[in-house]
Amino acid sequence: LIKAGANAITIHGRIVGDESHTVARWGTLTEVVRQLKQTESVPIIVNGDLYTRADIREMRRRTGCDGVMLARPALYNISLFRRGEEEKEDSSINEHDDCYNK
Q: Less crowded by CB within 10 Å, the N or C end of the chain?
């Protein structure tokens, strides 16, 4: 992808055959990102079970990724988008179910 001109790479923490309820493979994701960061200079973005700001911080700490991409977690925990305000506690997915179901 990089040789073809990609300006960034996004890597998901699940593999073909994993269902959406399967826990993302953070260990594998960590290894892949670390290896890419050693040889490539494009930004690496990760995705997979990043439901809270604590999850995002932990993934960035583990992998050294340049950014994260959110899908379902953005629907479950809209507080992830608050600016200038740290979460006092990580919000529960259940607290945001009403946002997802509307």
A: C
State pLDDT tens for residues 30-63: 999 999 999 888 999 998 888 888 999 999 999 9
Residue 101: its H or E element: helix 97-101
Position 45, amino acid? I
Residue 62 near residue 48, CB atoms below 8 Å: no
| This model's pTM is above 0.70 | yes
Are the C-beta atoms of 14 and 3 separated by less than 8 Å?
Answer: no
Strands (E), 1-102: 9-12, 44-47, 67-68
Computed over its alpha carbons, how large is the radius of gyration of the chain?
A: 15
